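Supplementary Methods. Inverse-folding protocol.

Structures were first reduced to a discrete structure-token string of length 131. This string, shown here, constituted the complete conditioning input.
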């Protein structure tokens, strides 16, 4: 699992699968591409999350990301707000995904940060950095 994918998983709403794949998350957090200190911080964060009761983790996630626009994980909400430009930006992003063979489920909007990170985790490193 790449770091971008890991960060997307950690930012997403904590579902039961998170705890079922805890060993994989810890292994991904111990990425040698990070400094020793950053690896330790990331592993510590993942361990802390895995040690948290799932209902408590879900409640914290809702309190942080689902209570207003300032912490929204929908990127275009920060850029375009409720303007008409947001719709065209979403269409453009969907077209970018499709052009590169990344199909969306109907569950998430295309500008949902964990989804974008999953997409970028499948792209060449230079392209992901450009984003």
């Amino acid at each position: 699992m790449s770091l971008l994918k890991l960060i997307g998983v950690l930012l997403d709403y904590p579902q039961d699968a998170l705890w079922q794949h805890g060993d994989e998350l810890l292994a991904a957090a111990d990425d040698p591409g990070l400094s020793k200190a950053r690896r330790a911080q990331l592993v510590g964060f993942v361990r802390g999350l895995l040690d948290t009761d799932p209902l408590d983790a879900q409640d914290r996630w809702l309190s942080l990301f689902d209570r207003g626009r300032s912490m929204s994980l929908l990127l275009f909400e920060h850029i375009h707000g409720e303007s008409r430009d947001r719709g065209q930006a979403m269409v453009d992003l969907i077209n970018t995904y499709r052009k590169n063979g990344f199909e969306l489920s109907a569950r998430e909007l295309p500008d949902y940060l964990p989804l974008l990170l999953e997409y970028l985790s499948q792209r060449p490193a230079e392209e992901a950095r450009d984003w």
